[in-house]
Amino acid sequence: MFDDWIIIIIAVALLLYLFDRYVKWHLYPKRWGIVEKSSIFRSGQLTPRQIRRQVTAHDIDVIISLMTPLPGDLSYEAEVGLTKEGLERYVYPLFGDGTGDIDKYAAAIEKIHDSVRSSKKVLVHCAAGAQRTGGVIAMYRILVQGKSIKFAMSEMERYGWRPKKNPALVPYINENLEKLVELLIERNVLENLPSELPYLIQGFRDAN
Fold this sequence. Notes:
Layout: H1 2-27, E1 33-36, E2 40-43, H2 48-57, E3 62-65, H3 74-83, E4 88-91, H4 102-117, E5 122-125, H5 132-144, H6 149-158, H7 169-186
Parallel strand pairs: 2-5, 3-4, 3-5
Antiparallel strand pairs: 1-2
């Protein structure tokens, strides 16, 4: 009898793993989130079906991808295909942990800012929707929208960023923060340097 329960538990665990790994994101948009209602959305890489569904459902005008282009990949091709129907698509590739060329951060934030000012609805995504997207959205929140560090970092955690799993992201942003602000001033996104740079909190965990 005990052996039967062990087999059942293993079978259930395997089914849950297979569902999470291969089925879930075909049914639900990967780490889908609303940054600003009817304006800015975020996600992981969506399946071809989900890409069209979400773009249509939310009248999305612009997609910002933070991934390296993958010609031949079905999701990549689905996004590119939608550009033939009027969708704008911009690519600012970063590494999987959210680090990379800080100019790509500035370009992505500028494009979000310009899209919102032009009343265009924009979707920002990477592969998982946690690290690259988390970093870019957090800096947009803090530098452009004036949100608090705690607000932005709590949002990062809600969408999958963890300080222990990805210890590189916060130091990277802090080390490049002054340069990022300067780039955003050059791009007319920000007017001037803040009186105090809003450095992220290393090891942040939201107690709430």
